[in-house]
From TrEMBL:
GO biological process, one term: proteasome regulatory particle assembly
InterPro entries xrefs: Nas2_N (IPR040815), PSMD9 (IPR035269)
Protein name: Nas2 N-terminal domain-containing protein
Annotated organism of origin: Coptis chinensis
Entries under Pfam families matching the protein: Nas2_N (PF18265)
One Gene Ontology cellular component annotation held by this UniProt entry: cytoplasm
Highest rank taxon of the organism: Eukaryota
Length: 73
């Protein structure tokens, strides 16, 4: 009797993992597109100010979300 519940639970977890991986891939593709900042770029210029050619706040938010989502995987 417990086997169907385990199978359903496993399938639910697999779906959640696929959803998380899809979300992670979307964030990665946004950050690594040709005009994007990349995953390991310095967000400050050589004088220590935020770079003016990228939306630093959005990049940090996406990077943070990527880490949070990755931890839930």
């Amino acid at each position: 009797m417990a086997a169907p519940n385990l199978k359903a639970e496993t399938m639910c977890l697999i779906e959640k993992r696929e959803t998380i991986e899809t979300e992670m891939n979307a964030i990665i593709s946004t950050l690594t597109q040709p005009s994007g900042p990349g995953l390991t770029v310095n967000l400050l210029d050589f004088e220590g100010f935020p770079r003016s050619d990228i939306d630093v706040h959005a990049v940090r938010a996406q990077g943070h979300h990527l880490v949070v989502v990755g931890d839930n995987r």
